[in-house]
Structure formats: C-alpha cells, structure tokens
Design brief:
The protein has 322 residues and is an all-alpha fold. It folds into two domains: 152 residues; 152 residues, no CATH class. The protein is flat. Its EC number is 1.17.99.9. Interacts with CtaB.
C-alpha cells in the first residue's frame, strides 16, 4: 500500500488516542471540581496567558483545554486527510464532518459553562457530545484500516433481530451515558452509600440526589442485561462472522468492567482512578457499539449482503432464527 495511507493510519490512531484523552480529561475536570480552575475566563486562564497563582485545579483545567485544542487541530487534519485519501469510502465524508463539528460543539459548551455557567442537566450533555466526536474519529480510523485491507468486514449477514439489538442498544447506551454524566454534575456519586441498593435499611430513594444515582444504576443494570442477551444471540448464530461475534463479546466484557468500576466508585468512596476507569470503559463500549452500528447500516443499505429468498421458502437451520 502507498506510503501516504500508511502514515494516515498512524496519524488516525494517535488522533483517536488524543480524543480518548479529551474524554478522560473532561471526566477528570468534573470529578476533581476543577471546572472553574481558571475562573470565569476563557480561553485565557484567570484573564492571563501565564497565570500567577498556580493551583492543582488550574493545572487540571488548563491541561484539559490544551489537550482539547490540540485534539481539535488533529481531528481537523485527519478529517481533511481522510477525505482526500479514502473519500471514495461511503461513510468517510460524513464521519469527517461529524468528528470535527461535534468536537467544536463540545468545546463551545465547555466555554459557555465557564463564562456564563450552565445547569447540571445541560452540562451532562457535554460528555455525550464529546463521546460522539470520539466515536466518529474511531470509526474514521477503522475505515482507513479497511481501505488499507488491514481489517475486513465484508460479506456480512445481519438478520432483523440482530439489527434490532444494535440499533436499540446504542440509542439506549447514550441514555445511560447521560444519566452517568448527570450523576457527576449533580454531585450524586455518593448519594447512596450502599450497592446495588441505595441503603441497606430501605429499598427506595427518598431525595433528589438518591433518585439521580439510582436512576443511573437501573439504566446501567438494564444495559448489562441487554448486551448479555445480544452477545448470547451472537454466540449462537454469528460465530461464522467474527467481526459481529467478537464485537459483542468485547462489548459484554466492557459493560461488565463498566458495572464493576461503577460499584467500586461507591465502595472506594469515589476513588479518582476508579472513577476515571469507569469513564474509560463506557467510552470504549460506545466505540464498539458505534462500529456495530456502522456494519448494521451497511447491510441495511446493501440488501444483497442479507439473506433473501422467495416468500414461503424455508430458511436453512443455521439462519432461521437470526
């Protein structure tokens, strides 16, 4: 393969990692209460390019701004480069636009929150918007590897039940992400001292922060069950299609890790490293689900990849219940 595409693959991987650092950095800012580390000043820090009074919160907030700015430049370069190099791949141009636009939007929301302040319900959207940008960059990277024949997801067959799982779970996962972000922004992470119940002496929450926390736990519990069902379905019917089979196995392992770190956040009294790991696992999970969505949309656009037969003809046993 030509050298330019080889270089593009490396740059795409580095950009994907940079976007992951943006996500984790945003979670770090929220969890350490550093969102106003630079005061009500943006893009300057306390109205200065080089602040005089250096605090841990200032370092965290300023570092996140610098990483986000660098990632924005990298995403812009990647979008233009991928557009020119692999623009013939159908999804490339759409993902190139989405990755950069959503990164800009999340930056503007962050800036508005610093300068004017925002409600917790609006701030909870910040992580989700960054997550879409990260997923778009990840998918763009995978498309580049596909164009280079490094990975292959050709000749897929997805029946209606599997497409239902993919569409439903990724939409629902975004709701779970929002409820988790709302927990952080409302400072409800330790509202319930017990797990999985809110308290050992009662079953139901009694005040707002407890309802926020338990709402997220319920949403997270349901997605664990749903992904387990989808992974079992893939194990039964899609072993011959490794990208689908292993995609769901990885998704199941990631959602288990996300659930475990969520419980450890309570048991460790909001240990910072555990909390960041919790954000890391949900970011990776959303990336995997986004790739499965891309594959499902491809088979939807290309019916020839799906099994088709005359009305009334019986499906083979291996495909009948897919």
């Amino acid at each position: 393969m030509q050298r330019p595409l080889h270089s593009l693959k490396w740059f795409a991987c580095v950009t994907t990692l940079a976007m992951l650092f943006v996500l984790i950095g945003g979670a770090l800012v929220t969890k350490t209460g550093s969102s106003l580390g630079c005061g009500r000043s943006w893009p300057l820090c306390n109205g200065q390019w080089l602040p005089d009074d250096i605090t841990p919160e200032l370092v965290i907030e300023l570092s996140h701004r610098l990483v986000s700015g660098l990632a924005g430049i990298m995403v812009l370069i990647l979008s233009i480069w991928a557009w020119r190099a692999v623009g013939h791949v159908r999804e490339t141009k759409f993902l190139a636009v989405v990755s950069f636009v959503f990164l800009v939007v999340q930056g503007l929301i962050g800036a508005a929150a610093v300068v004017w302040g925002q409600s917790d319900f609006v701030l909870a959207l910040h992580f989700g918007i960054s997550l879409i940008s990260f997923a778009a960059v990840l998918l763009l990277t995978l498309l580049i590897f596909e164009a280079d024949k490094t990975i292959s997801a050709a000749s897929l067959t997805l029946r209606r039940p599997m497409r239902f799982h993919i569409y439903g779970i990724i939409i629902y996962s975004y709701i779970v992400v929002y409820t988790g972000a709302l927990v952080r922004h409302t400072n409800a992470s330790l509202a319930c001292p017990s797990w999985p119940l809110c308290a050992k002496t009662r079953l139901f929450p009694v005040q707002f922060h407890e309802w926020v926390q338990m709402g997220h736990r319920l949403a997270a519990g349901l997605i664990v069950i749903w992904i387990a069902i989808a992974a079992l379905h893939a194990a039964r019917h899609y072993r011959s299609q490794p990208v689908i089979y292993y995609g769901w196995i990885i998704a199941f392992l990631l959602v288990l890790a996300q659930m475990a770190t969520g419980a450890l956040v309570v048991f460790t009294q909001l240990n910072l490293y555990v909390a960041l790991a919790h954000a890391f696992f949900i970011s990776c999970l959303f990336g995997v689900l986004s790739y499965l969505l891309l594959l499902a949309l491809r088979t939807r656009r290309n019916p020839a990849q799906s099994v088709s037969r005359p009305v009334g003809e019986t499906a083979p046993a291996a495909l009948k219940y897919r």
